[in-house]
Amino acid sequence: MTLPLQTVALLQSARDLVRGLPADAVFILTETHLDWDEVGRILVGCPRFVAAENPALLRTLKDRQDWTVIDVDPQPMSTPERMSTALLKAVTTTALQPGAHVVVVYNGIATLEDTPEPIDSLSVIHLGEHLERMTPQDLRVLGNAIPQDVLKAAVELASEVGREGREGQPIGTVLVVGDTRRVHELSKLLNFNPFRGYTKAERDIRDRRVREQIKEIAKLDGAILISRDGIAEAACVYLDVPTQGVSVSKGFGSRHLAAAAVSRHTKAIAFCISQSSGTVRVFQNGEMKLHIEPLARPHIWLPLRLETHEPPDEGSR
Question: Do 279 and 182 reside in the same domain of the chain?
């Protein structure tokens, strides 16, 4: 099988950018089958990642050490959404570092509806900036059990706690969002509830002033429970959740294990902030779904910006 000349030119450009910038990897997002041996020859010496609209396209690459296959759920989504999801999953699984520079080749110009299109575009993604500019589409991996505005507020709160700590001291804690009745059944208060006696408006995490107050409360031991509507319900909560059958990556402690467990045994989503690094890991159904680094600036909810590069003229090579 021979690659189209357009695909060859884009892959050659991606290889040259990895060497010249330098960048950390080439990421291929494909809708059609490619001659992977030929692709490998073009990208020789480049770390290679690949995701596909149809997972069957990548079956032959699963056992090859020279490729890192990123599995993305085969659900309908736009190319930017699929790209964002694939990149975030690569970071979540630590296959890529949050600050990596990645050259992405993909189909960016759809011409026929419901017809797979060949690769026609190339972009350079700075993952640090991408993670900082999370889009609402990035949260699609968490489904729709929690309203998007509440999820965004929880991301901002958890990220600020991880980035800033409190009074110069790092803070580690867990925010549990949703299914509060079931979570209450699997937990107990370690101390008095600091949210008791306040109105819902005074406990709504979508209000920045409320988030500032919660950041102070986050210093206390125990998790913070937030309803699916964004209302802070309780703090200083001990999550007494069974952990049998729940596993987290080596090096994570009891806080991450409790976050994973509570997300498995309830419909809640758990945000675990690491005290040592400030990194936020988001758990759902017992699995880590998102990994958010403590960046220097607040998250900006903007669409993913792509830097498009034209392939060099053959005469300039």
Answer: yes
**Block mean pLDDT (10 aa), the chain, length 317:** 88 96 94 92 95 86 90 73 79 77 88 70 82 62 84 88 78 93 93 91 93 90 94 94 82 87 94 85 90 56 45 41
299 with 134: CB under 8 angstroms? Answer: yes
User: How far is it, in rounded angstroms, from Cα 37 to Cα 131?
Assistant: 32
Within 8 A by CB and 6+ apart from 114, the residues are: none
Q: Which domain holds residue 92?
A: 5-133+302-316
Give per-residue pLDDT as tens, 59-113: 889 889 899 999 877 766 677 777 877 887 787 677 888 778 999 999 887 655 5
Residue 239 host element (H or E): strand 232-239
Q: Amino acid letter at 295?
A: L
Stated as kind and residue range, the H or E segment containing 37 is helix 36-42
64 and 170 both lie in a single domain: no
Closest CA to 246 of 227, 279, 223, 270: 270
* 25 SS3 class: strand
The token duo for 111 is 């011409």
CA separation for the pair 150, 155 (Å, rounded): 9
